[in-house]
Amino acid sequence: MTQTFLHVDMDAFFTSVEQHDHPELRGRPVVVGSPPDQRGVVAAASYEARKFGIHSAMPSREAGRLCPGAVFITPNGGRYQEVSDVIMKILERFTPLIEPVSIDEAFLDVTGAKKLFGSGAEIARKIKTAIKRETGLTASVGVASNKFLAKIASDLEKPDGLTVVPEGAEKVKKFLAPMPVGRIWGVGEVTERVLATAGIRTIGDLQVASRTRLSDLFGAAVVDDLVSLANGEDSRAIELDRDEKSISREHTFAEDVDSPETIENVLRELVDDVASRLRTDGKQALLARLKLRWRGFKTITRQRPFPSPCCDDFSLREMALTLFREQDLIKPVRLVGFGVGRLTAIGAASSQLSLFEQKPENQNRKEALSRAMDSIRHRFSDSKMVRPASIMKTSD
Predict the structure, then answer these.
(1) Are 293 and 330 in contact (CB under 8 A)?
(2) pLDDT tens by residue, 14-57
(3) CATH topology of domain 1-165
(4) Higher local confidence (pLDDT), 393 or 7
(5) CA distances from 151 to 1, 108, 129, 141, 206 (A)
(6) 266: which residues sit within 8 A by CB, 6+ positions away?
(7) Can you give the pTM of this predicted structure?
(8) Residues annotated as part of the active site
(9) How far apart are CA 24 and CA 331, in angstroms?
(10) CA angle 247, 248, 250 (to 5 degrees)
(11) 246-395: CATH number
(12) Cα–Cα distance, 155 to 5 (Å, whole number)
């Protein structure tokens, strides 16, 4: 039986929920995010607002300038999650093979459901009808033989679209050929510019390009994936257990900050939050990453591996402050962020250490103290509690 995947993507989800709950907003440009007179960004824009050039991640002040008549609404995460839960339960009626990608989109493998519910297109129509009936919202669905093609298809006829990708290698290539190369996963603005300088602007151009020529531009390993996707080939299955590959936290200052002390204080809070999340998830990190955004929105990242897997407040904080202090503050800082990657389960990480890499007793003490502080925080929920660093200092 031919494999059939769906990609279900809600249309302008956050703003659609707001327009559904508040009928007076229907037909008006709606922006979910920070008010235009405050520091912050757009989380979502209704289709009416998009006509003015407003899009997600845009500074709210710029959105307000583009459309002074737009209605700005503070995000209501609880309500959006509530609607998302209803949608996911609808999807579960058709198949257990569901891979949520975010709060408003998911991949489905409906290969085994076709005997019960009909073709992929018929299942897509039934899902769209159920979502509309039970939430009042519309979804766009792509139907294809793999996840990559389904994802592309769901975006072609928004809003309220349904696109079925033709089957067969040659038909798939023809379907993809006219599209810009930027449609391919992993092809961002930089890669797209490099391809354009080589005369490759469409997926069709990429399909017929010389592999030798592409390897000169990107390297053989990258080219294999690039060409496979250009030809509509994607062997990935539904991921039922999507382990988090990174954990990060960010803070945007109300006003640009040029005081290293102020930034470091915020950074410590972010680090402690990340470290606590690591321990809650039973994970350790092998990589640390610092993010800074200057006035003017230029963003830099700095990363470095840890000497050994860790999840304690002290090791993470030391690494974060080291990365920060090595960076010259060329401009006032708008945003600071800290994250960790290359996560492993705590047991697995420990078992991979060689005889000469066993955790020093001091690190075991740090982890134990960090966990003790987690328990105290949870018990008393006191944000003014003494930081672990000061306690550790007195005990060393």
Answers:
(1) no
(2) 999 999 999 999 999 999 988 999 877 788 999 999 999 999 87
(3) Alpha-Beta Plaits (3.30.70)
(4) 7
(5) 21, 11, 20, 8, 19
(6) 251, 253, 336
(7) 0.67
(8) 105
(9) 43
(10) 165
(11) 3.30.1490.100
(12) 15
